[in-house]
Write the structure tokens for this entry.
Amino acid sequence: MDKDNLSAVELVVLSVALVGAVNWLLVDAASFNLVTETLGGTNTGIVYTGIGVAGVASLADLFGFLELEEIGGND
């Protein structure tokens, strides 16, 4: 992953993973669930699944098991 030239897929995956990380920080530190508050409690399972997939894809890209840049092309 080249930090200076992220593909669209890399940017989306990292953004979703960041939202998940911030959400869990808020859940632990302030007992506030950003995802549930934003969606009103509906479809949270789908959102958490997407966040989990994004986190795993980010780790796989970080450790070289997956090349997100090749999936999304280079903008």
